[in-house]
Design goal:
Elements (H helix, E strand, L loop, with lengths): L2 E3 L13 E3 L5 H11 L1 H7 L10 E5 L2 E2 L14 E6 L7
Parallel strand pairs: 1-5
Antiparallel strand pairs: 1-2, 3-4, 3-5
């Protein structure tokens, strides 16, 4: 099954897990499985219209979700990474 990786700052949404496996044959199914398993993750990642918030990046392996369709097939050894935007530095 595809494995979902969660950055430290978002682990409060997934009971402290750094990663977990989910079922699904497409990108959309995998993401839906992750959100069903951890509804707080959906709240953290999705806006009120169900779209990924602009400051969250999602990658399937090393490919941005922006570059692939939700209907794209996934393999059992694929990885899903949620990456929140980082900001800061000098004014």
């Amino acid at each position: 099954m595809p494995r979902v990786y969660i950055p430290t700052m978002m682990r409060k949404c997934v009971d402290g897990k750094s990663s977990f496996e989910v079922s699904g044959q497409t990108v959309g199914e995998v993401l839906a499985s992750a959100y069903r398993a951890f509804p707080a993750l959906a709240t953290e990642v999705l806006d009120k219209d169900g779209r990924i918030k602009p400051f969250i990046a999602v990658f399937i392996n090393s490919t941005s979700l922006h570059d692939i369709e939700n209907t794209a097939r996934v393999r059992d050894d694929d990885e899903v990474h949620f990456v929140p935007a980082m900001a800061g530095g000098l004014d």
